Amino acid sequence: xxxxxxxxxxxxxxxxxxxxxxxxxxxxxxxxxxxxxxxxxxxxxxxxxxxxxxxxxxxxxxxxxxxxxxxxxxxxxxxxxxxxxxxxxxxxxxxxxxxxxxxxxxxxxxxxxxxxxxxxxxxxxxxxxxxxxxxxxxxxxxxxxxxxxxxxxxxxxxxxxxxxxxxxxxxxxxxxxxxxxxxxxxxxxxxxxxxxxxxxxxxxxxxxxxxxxxxxxxxxxxxxxxxxxxxxxxxxxxxxxx
Length: 242
Known about the structure:
With 242 residues, this protein is an alpha/beta fold. The chain has seven helices and eight strands; from the N terminus they run H-E-E-E-H-E-H-H-E-H-E-E-H-E-H.
């Protein structure tokens, strides 16, 4: 595949749309959405930031779909939980941070739903932004059978008692060097943890980029870092997915 960042504005203005779809984790109702490129298309599992699955994730999903990928946007909050106030976002994020088994279960429910819809979960990469990046690292540590993992401006800490010994595929971490929320010390600690456990990885820091540097219309949006980040993501997907 060949990719051109400059064409993105045309891609995101396409007529493509998708309705939310319901699925379940235990007794919880979740609302994600699925964009199918073709029956045999490689799959991207996309996990949302602390806003919940919103127009930002759908915009990114459309961009990937237009390039030939099927995309399943997972919901790890629950139907109707789309927090706006920062305090609410911290509350829902904190619940997931404290219950890692539930976090894993919610993501596995998304994988099961994607497979039920006919997506090729055996030829898939998992990616996420912010909270979603944290969740991606959680699934990598859990030994999820993905072809690759991409965490973009996510939380980088390793919970007590966890390690990277069961990682099944390469982890790509993209981080803003000027991130005031997740320090470069945490970035270095993650690098050391993965190296100690011999987990395949690539870690990139973008100078001048703050937290949420890829989020359009955000005061911290960094167009140069976003462009580089997006291109590296596309190269990673092309290398990992058949």
